[in-house]
Amino acid sequence: MYDEKLILICEDSMEGIFTAVYDGWMTGAKGTMVEIRTEMPDSLELFCTYQEIETDGEKSCKVGRTIREKLGEETYEYICYAVVSTHPDKGTAIFQVLLKALSKGRRNRRIMEDLSDPYVNIVWKLHTKVWHEFHRFYGFVRFRELGGGVLFSKIAPENDILVMLAPHFENRFPNEHWMIYDERRGKVILHPRGEKCTLRTGVELSEGYREELMNREEYEDLWKAFCESITVHERRNGKLQQQFVPLKFRSNMLEFNQSP
């Protein structure tokens, strides 16, 4: 049992969580229970020390490099998928998995096979959940054409997968100006034609963008008409359709927003 607890409060990002892992490592290795959280709780626990962590790119890179070199690419992937989830205990689970795999000189490259460990189990389940949403969005992203030939898409994923989507669409549309906006988090990926993607945070759609979208309704009508024309009504299967295209994905898919 742990006699005390250190709770690290960090930014909800890979860089923030990896920085907290770096700063809490020595304390955790000495036997103190370390938790990593991405926001300060409403009520503080007794007999706990709270410490706010400032994101440090150099520390984050060192942690990422250590995971890849000592635990392998597969474990690194599990950790990265868990990082972008919305689970409140993801930071603590990641820290404890790494501590178990790497402390005291260990290099347990098969750590993710130990599903009897509660923290490994959490990371494994988060990886699976995020992986499914991430790959579904390959087919659920819909672009609209704005002024100047810019392609625009608005999404609201449950998990913070926007950056993970960038390479797929960068390869798919290398010669197009496009942007994907995560309205839930106020983030946008920007892709100038022939260049690499960049990320912007704290973004809200301006009135100009909203007016531009409103003026493009004719393109939406054409898309809806096309989807309707290829539908065989007699073969519609609502239950099967919902299984492959859950309701939560449909708000930004034009073919599921047809007028009655």
Q: Rounded to an integer, what's the Rg over CA atoms?
A: 22 Å
Indicate the proportion of strand residues.
Answer: 5-15%
Shape: elongated
Structural class: alpha/beta
Largest sheet geometry = 5 strands, mixed
Assembly context of the chains: single chain
String of helices and strands? EHEEHHHHEEHEEEHHH
Number of helices: 9
Strand order of the largest sheet: 4-5-6-7-8
Weakly predicted, low-confidence segments: 218-227, 252-256
Number of strands: 8
- The amount of helix comes to 40-55%
Report the mean per-residue pLDDT as an integer.
83
How far apart are the termini?
61 Å
Descriptive overview:
By secondary structure, the protein is of the alpha/beta class. The chain has helices at 14-29, 57-71, 73-83, 90-102, 118-140, 162-172, 207-214, 217-229, 238-244; strands at 5-9, 33-37, 48-52, 144-145, 151-155, 178-182, 187-191, 198-200. Strands 4-5-6-7-8 form a 5-stranded mixed beta sheet, with helices on one face. The chain has a 3-stranded parallel beta sheet with strand order 2-1-3. Helix 1 (14-29) packs across helix 2, helix 2 packs across helix 3 and helix 4 (90-102) crosses helix 5. It starts with a strand and ends in a 16-residue tail after the last helix.
